[in-house]
Design brief:
- The structure holds 2 protein chains of 2 kinds.
- Chain A is mainly beta.
- Chain A has no helices and 11 strands.
- In chain A, a hairpin with a 6-residue loop joins strand 5 and strand 6.
- The N and C termini of chain A lie far apart (41 Å).
- Chain B starts with a strand and ends with a strand.
- The chains are: A mainly beta, B mainly beta.
- Chains A and B meet through strand 10 of A and strand 4, strand 5 and strand 9 of B.
Amino acid sequence: AQRVTQPEKLLSVFKGAPVELKCNYSYSGSPELFWYVQYSRQRLQLLLRHISRESIKGFTADLNKGETSFHLKKPFAQEEDSAMYYCALRGDNAGGTSYGKLTFGQGTILTVHP
Amino acid sequence: NAGVMQNPRHLVRRRGQEARLRCSPMKGHSHVYWYRQLPEEGLKFMVYLQKENIIDESGMPKERFSAEFPKEGPSILRIQQVVRGDSAAYFCASSPTGYGYTFGSGTRLTVV
């Protein structure tokens, strides 16, 4: 079974402070990890994926297989970063039919105060 | 390209009625996924369809829920005899290949 855990339901920081949104996963194979963001009243959007190893809007995330974590980080938070963030996992579909299916964490609401 | 379109945005149904949620994928996308977000919970996979076929329905409740994606027209998620516990946001995502999702804005179902 695959599972994604985001231990913080709410996270508040001040503008300019570093922010880290935690994500831990459980999966026996080779997962693909994603971060999605949902701004107020907007649709869910892909923020970044671990295989592309890119930085989007100043956010980065590194897959740590030893700790089974994929934490999202930004050195200097901005007010416009306030949103709901979801960590998601896609399995490697070894022998299964779950092609493309994502398992989401419960989400973390990030609030950046001025 | 208008993106993934879901309608209605908000749907109110009385207990026992039927709810029909529609999802029009992006042009050229033949893979559709439905997810449900219950209050205070994350998104949970429900069903994965390709044109005219259900590929994975492991997340669908065994009764009252069904999904289709006909050759022509949108994908439909149908909930019969709705109960209060069905109140949730239902999201659809589409993909050309099964990877690289684009999500719709969701339908918020309220059962009264």
